[in-house]
Structure formats: structure tokens, C-alpha cells
Amino acid sequence: MQIAIFGLGYVGATAAACLASQGHRVIGVDPNPDKVSKIMSGVAPITEPGLDDLTAAGVKDGLLSAVSIADKDVVSSDLIIVCVGTPSAVDGSHNMSFIAEVSRQIALQLKDAPDARPVVAYRSTVRPGTIEEMIQPIFDDVLGTDSDRVELVYNPEFLRESVAIADFFAPPKIVVGTKTGERCAAIDGINEGIEAPVFYVKYREAEITKFVDNTFHAVKTAFANEIGRVCTKLGVSASEVHRIFVSDTKLNVSPYYLRPGGAFGGSCLPKDVRALQHMSRLVGGSTGLIDSLIVSNEAHKQFLFELCSQGLTHGAKVLMLGLAFKDKSDDLRESPNIDIARYLLTAGYELSIFDPYVTPGNLVGQNLGVLSRSPFIRKLLKSQAEIEAETYDVVIDTRSIAGNYKLDAARIVDINRLA
């Protein structure tokens, strides 16, 4: 099958390499020339364990390539997968400009390829009604009555950064939204051999899936951190409370996201929570708990700063291990560690930062933008040799990785374990 993937960020780059490894011919499309150049050189444009090897193999075998601009040959693929970003707008809703622009680009190119009859599958997180109320009208406007040769599908992804390849081939579930809720042959084709529960539903049920999942993950994280704060202040072992709590697999379901530790961040949870809050406000949903999540998360960042800075005096030397929002990733989008770094600098401490997976020269796209908006970060990043040569008043371990390094510190605070 020939597959075109629009957007070569974490989702798109992973999907491109994984699909190529299955024998599909994959063409990635991204306006960022650095991403295109990296893929054509056999290098993944983002940091993800194992992705460099898959990318290199796909390029070497002639199954993976990338371009900056799509032409009619690209959109004549059997399957087009849209993975462009939907970042938060000022009011908390999703910014849909990238989705709209890519949809129009595809439709315009299809106008010059009258024999093409692709399936266009969207994986970007979008609010319910987007396919019917925004995307379909774009294709209708450009192609007129000929738009019925394009089959639109909503197929959300369930990839966790740092284990994305494993999740691609063994997802927790497969959700496919179609106009009638019937099956789609192209989606069945790329999922052949993958064992997971499959749900074929209509567009809106599929579109809201990620909001439900990500908001619940945010609920679990905020809940666990609130309990962790109370336990710490009362002299109770939060780790013991957590151990007891997650042992109940009949009612408490899962230990994931429930360990008191770092604040939530990244490209999904914060923006999807804000978007669901925005939707709730529009329809009068009165979602008190959901509305409290971002506030609770911000309070937890302040709490972590206070916990780590106990006993420190002005000018104290502090080392933060981990800058990205998650281990084994270079994703800086809405990383809570950047906010904590700002608190530490404002308090007058001498801060150093080390993250083995964050190299400024390798950052592209939104991650590079984060660094540009926070220029102080670049000056604080140190090498392993530099951090092991210094003495620190406190080490803030955001990854539980302090044991991997020879550190001279009066105190080490592992914020993944509050007790």
C-alpha cells in the first residue's frame, strides 16, 4: 500500500517508520525542511527509542521518503494519514488552522488527480464534529460533487512517548470513526496482524475518545498528587499509601498515572484538558473536577519547588536532572520542569540542568520553539562530565536517574516519590 503521512512530529514520524517496516511505501510530508532532511538521511526527526533504526531501515529499503510539499502523486496514495498539530488556542480550544490548511492542500491536489480515490484518515486530536462540520465541507467546497471519491476516517492514536514503537504494534485499542460506523478496508490493512480490541464507530464517538482518555489520565495524576501533598504534610508515607492503593486491581484498575510525583505536562494532557473545559463551558457542562485540573497541576509545581528548596539559602547550587516532560524523550512542550526551573531562578539559586535526551542542536519544530521562548534554558544545560565535576546543595531528580551518575550532593530529592 502507498501511504502519505502529513505531519512528521512524534505521531507522524513514528507511524511513518513503523508502517515502512511492515512493507508499505510511505511518503512523509512536512513543511519543516530540517525534518525532511533528517528522514531522507535515515535519521528520525524526534528522539524516540528505536526510531532511528526503523527510519534508517525504511530509507535504505526504499520504502520511506519525505517531501516538504505534496503534489498530486503524493495525494494519489491509497491512504493519507493526517498527523498535524492541534495546539491550544488562547481560549483553551484546539487551534484547528493546521488541520484546515492541510485538508485544503490535499483537496486542491486531488482536484488535479481525478483518478485518485484515497482514504484520508485523521489522527490529530480534534473536537467532536470536526470531520462533519469542518473537514468534510472543505473537501465539498474544493471538489464539489466529486468529493464522494474521498473516504474520510477518524483514527486516533494511543502512543506513549518513549515506548511509541511498542505501542504502535501493540496498542491498548484501535478506534476507527467512519461516516456510517462501518469498517474501512485501508485501516484494516495497516492493522493486519495487530492484536487489540477494535471499535468501529461513527465520527463523533471516535473524535471524543482522546479527550476522555487524556482527561482521565490528568484526573488520575492530579488526584494522586493531591493525596501525595497531604500525606507529605501529615508525615505519612505517600509511597506506602500508593502501594496499598494500587494493589486493588478490582476497583482502582491501574497503577499508571497514580503515583504521587511530577506534575503532568507534554503535548496531550494539558491541551486536551483545556479543550474539554472549553467545550464544557460552551454547553454548560459544569465540570467542576475537570475545571480544577490545571489549577491543581499548577499548585503541584509550586509545591514541588517548595519541597525541593527547603533549607536552601540565596545562591545555593541546584542541579535538575531531566528537562523534558518525560524520560527518554526530548519533548519540551508544556514540560512542568521548565516552570520549576523558572521558580528556582527567580528564588536566586544557581541552577544547572542535565537531560541526556535533550540536545539543543537536535531540536526541531515546537520543541525548538519552546527553547526559543525560554532562552535561559540553553545556558543552563550541562554535560554529564560537567555535572559530575560539581558539588550541589540539592539535586532535583525528575526521572529517578540520580543513581546513574556520580553526583556530589548534600541532598537528592526524587520528585517521583514524595515520601
UniProtKB/TrEMBL annotation:
Chemical reaction(s) catalysed: UDP-alpha-D-glucose + 2 NAD(+) + H2O = UDP-alpha-D-glucuronate + 2 NADH + 3 H(+)
Pathway in which the depicted protein is active: Nucleotide-sugar biosynthesis; UDP-alpha-D-glucuronate biosynthesis; UDP-alpha-D-glucuronate from UDP-alpha-D-glucose: step 1/1
SMART domains assigned to the protein according to its UniProt record, in alphabetical order: UDPG_MGDP_dh_C
Residues of the UDP-glucose/GDP-mannose dehydrogenase C-terminal domain: 319-404
Record has NAD as a keyword: yes
The family this protein is said to belong to: Belongs to the UDP-glucose/GDP-mannose dehydrogenase family.
Protein name, per record: UDP-glucose 6-dehydrogenase
Species, as recorded: Sphingomonas oryzagri
Organism classification: Bacteria, Pseudomonadati, Pseudomonadota, Alphaproteobacteria, Sphingomonadales
